[in-house]
Amino acid sequence: MQFFDTHTHLDYLAQDLNLSVSQLVDNAKKSQVERILVVAVFAKNFAEVTACSRAVPQHIVYGLGLHPLYIKRHQRTDLDLLEQQLQMQDPYCTAIAEIGLERAVAEVCTSELWQKQCEFLEAQLQLAKRYDLPVNLHSRKSHEQLYTFLKQAKLNKTGVVHGFAGSYEQAKRFVDLGYKIGVGGTITYQRANKTRETIAKLPLDALLLETDSPDMPVFGFQDSPNRPERLMVTFDTLCALRPEPPEQIADVVWQNSERLFGLGSR
Ligand SMILES: [Zn+2]
Fold first, then answer.
1. Peptide bond before 57: cis, by omega within 30 degrees of 0?
2. How many angstroms separate the alpha carbon of residue 211 from the centre of ligand 1?
3. What's CA 115's distance to the chain center, in Å?
4. Strands, sheet with 3-8, edge to edge from the N-terminal-most edge strand
């Protein structure tokens, strides 16, 4: 079995743990996590994110994007910077990430900032289309609005709704539009009933695994930064929720991930 952690902030994890990116990858490999996608949050960390991939290119691909939670900081010129990076057509840049909508934090939902969130999402979906890249999407309390944007954007490569939490109906609409559902640490918590039921019922073809390291800690490790190797805790929970045997789950989820974000997916 081999695994693909399809959403991480490895540049932050390296800082938090004071470890090199290759040390982080060595630890991940001990748990069969062979591939990692590192995503950006603002223009300032584009260089760090790119450097993560350069450090261990056979195991790390990356995505560049402007995260909705930091909407206040983003300048219009950051979108130009993003496009300049994309013009380089680096084969290791396999996603526009992390982009999306945030409605769970009041501070970024004033009418002015909400409008800015929508503009930046729209602009980045256009870039995804222009550069034929899939998107790695953040969505909190905004599935309905995000769905409307995705439906209009009609992206060729689609993408994933990362760290999904929500109902089966919400997930199914994204899946019917060709998007994957990112399964993260949320399902390791017994109390996340609705999301666990959703993940149990969706087609296996629709699922990707991720940690969101150093965020979204898995159950039992709430007090320390999350790490790619803890993908296995989420995988074990996924296996307990699903009817298929573990080998089949691992194989299908690996294929889903490689096809969407792997090297050579461009
Ligand atoms: Zn993230």
1. no
2. 9
3. 23
4. 3-8, 33-39, 60-64, 93-102, 135-140, 159-161, 180-183, 207-209
The CA 137 to ligand 1 mean position distance, Å, reads 9
> Residue 116 carries which side chain, given as an amino acid letter?
K
Ion ligand 1: residue ranges with CB closer than 5 A:
98, 212
What is the value of pTM for the model shown? Answer: 0.97
d(CA 213, CA 147): 25
| Model confidence pLDDT, tens digit, residues 189-201 | 999 999 999 999 9
How far is residue 25's CA from residue 108's CA, in Å, rounded to a whole number? 34
Does residue 9 contact residue 39 with C-beta atoms inside 8 Å? yes
The token pair that represents 64 in the structure block = 């560049």
- Read off the pLDDT of residues 230-262 as tens digits, 9 standing for 90 and up: 999 999 999 999 999 999 999 999 999 999 999
